[in-house]
């Protein structure tokens, strides 16, 4: 049995005494990756020789002290982005809850490996443990199995026989954001918002051979789209077709923007407000063959929150990302990458108040992002905002890596009005003529 596992994860072993957790851990993980509660219990003040049945949720003072020490060491490992395995019974939800919370704190996927062996096998493998304790542990484990997927684990895998446990092999896989081995070269393109004519012009200027629904570069450069492909502009379907075609051919990478995520939710049947151009995007999609809507939904659903590239030197996220979230996976990471850091309040224009995260950024990686329109590409503390408000009459901008070059294409028209001014007076393109006039 081959089991895919993120190469950065908090692996929580779940099983009674005698289930084979220690043997599985020793076979599938490096010794330095395994943190066993029993090891820390031996170091706890006043602890006697630990029975195999102790669990992180047990009440005795020595067990609680050992659990706190284990969690501290595990946290230090996760802080440094190291895979960590927790070897304890963890048969009760109370015990598992603490590990899920620890993983969330460090934006790390928590994975449960459940060893649900027959009671007779467990008792035979751990004759020093009271059979009543094993019985109660297995009973507690099985009572909680149905609810396990709702406890916040990234994944939960149940091994239901000694044979499955014995034959299990782990296949470590990088997180979807982890493209550190990819050095490009790249052309990172800011928020397009349905401006297909400007996108075609930009790709042509960057040297791409543009054809219907695809574009390629003779020097094998690839485009990275920084999100917000649709809404507000005149041709969101044309942009989606081109970008999805490039991605399918390996000519582009894409991170989602907040507009893309809202479109995904709408196409999934979720209730969303049809404002900021979404109604018009959906109307165009509805006019396409039926399969296009599902293709778009699946494409957007499969996008990672951000990318880490070029040996960790480059990060691309729609709204930016602080260093503590680079190459990590959590709901908080995705929310930040899509929406940025907000206060929950709105400004005088009725828009969310966004905190200037880039002002405090001190990371080693260059973070290229968009989301907040600026009059010209804006560098600050090794970050670069390339959303120059094309749909609002500004420009479509691109950043070439590793050349460190900026390119901009002026908007042909002002397709939508910006609620929050960002362009100097009279700098915007003229208003687009009414197509129906």
Tell me what the structure shows.
It contains 13 helices and 22 strands. With 437 residues, it is of the alpha/beta class. The protein folds into 2 domains: 2-173, P-loop containing nucleotide triphosphate hydrolases (Rossmann fold); 178-410, Purple Acid Phosphatase, chain A, domain 2 (4-Layer Sandwich). The strands form 6 sheets. The protein has a 6-stranded mixed beta sheet with strand order 8-14-15-18-20-19. A 5-stranded parallel beta sheet has the order 3-4-2-5-6, with helices on both faces. It is elongated.
Q: What layout of secondary structure does this protein have?
A:
Blueprint: E1 2-6, E2 10-15, H1 21-28, E3 34-36, H2 37-43, H3 61-79, E4 84-87, H4 93-105, E5 110-115, H5 119-125, H6 131-144, E6 155-159, H7 162-167, E7 169-173, E8 178-179, E9 186-189, H8 196-205, E10 209-211, E11 214-216, E12 222-225, H9 236-248, E13 252-254, H10 258-267, H11 278-286, H12 290-301, E14 306-309, E15 314-317, H13 331-339, E16 342-346, E17 352-354, E18 366-369, E19 378-380, E20 383-385, E21 395-401, E22 405-410
Parallel strand pairs: 1-7, 2-4, 2-5, 3-4, 5-6, 8-14, 9-12, 12-13, 15-18, 18-20
Antiparallel strand pairs: 9-21, 10-11, 14-15, 16-17, 19-20, 21-22
